[in-house]
Structures are given as structure tokens and as C-alpha cells.
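A favour between colleagues. Tell me how you read the following sequence-structure pair.

===
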Amino acid sequence: MTTSSRRGFIGSLALAGAASGAALAGAGRAGAAPAALPFSAFKKDTDFACVYHCDFGDQARFGQMLGNISNHLSVYDFDPMRLKIVVVAHGPGLKFFLEDVSGTPWASQTVDPDLYTRFAGLAKYGVEGYLCQITFKRLSIDVAKARSDPFLKLVPSGVASVAELQSHGFSYLKIA
């Protein structure tokens, strides 16, 4: 495949990803928690890898992070063989990955469902979300409230995962 036809193909996938994001967002198994991912499974298998740290609950900031991730992927032609991106969510950042926020510290808030649809669209390019088990435990949130899409994983600790990924060669980014 030539470079130009490959770019066209990748660009077409990018457009299709946005359209299929809504389908992906609902593809999880209702009431089932994401798979657990131990630190021993962390690895960097691309030349470029980055961890985005999401410990915030501001929707505009989360949307900005998603835009930055899309821009980041675009520089690598949306090629998951060249760039691996992981979003580690803990604390208030966890709310973006829940089926609903009832019974959580964010129960009085409304989370824009389009944010998760956008995240699911990015997952078509290998983006994964790592959700902190400590946050679930300390805030008494039922893990079954987490979306269960295959690109989401439960990790023992959000902050420890950030450090572990960095020790494996992932660059660190946090949207301020």
C-alpha cells in the first residue's frame, strides 16, 4: 500500500471511528466489570507511547484531553502500531467511565454522554482506559458501575499505574 493510499485509508478509519463510537459506547456487558490488568502485564510495544493522567472531573478539561489525544494520534496517522496511548483515570476522573453516577460522589452531576462516545471512537486506534480499583474501593463505588468495553481495564492503583507506565518508557501528559 502506498503512503498516500495508506493515509487515505487511515483517514477513512478516523471518520468511521467517530460514527461507530456510539455503537462502541454501548457494546459493553451490562453489570460486568472491566477486566483486571496487573502491573506485570504493562509493556511498551510501540516506538512511541504516552500515558494521559486523568484525576479531574471537569468535563471541559476531559473534552480538551480527548481533543489532544486525537491530535496526538493524527501525527502518527492514527496507526496503533506506531503510537500507544493509555488514559489512567482515578478520583473524579473515574466518573467519565461509569455507566451512571447514581450512588457516587458525583450523583448530583450530569456527565455529557458524548464524552464517552468520543473516547470510544479513539479506542478504535488502540487507546485504552485504565481505571483505579482504589478509587472504587475508597469511594464505595460498585465496580459493576464501570463500563465494560474491552478497551477499559481495572488497575490496582491509578497513581501507581502512571508511575509503572513511565518506568516502561511511556511519556507523561496531563491536561491543565
Q: What stands out?
A: The longest strand covers residues 48-54. DSSP finds five helices and six strands in the chain.
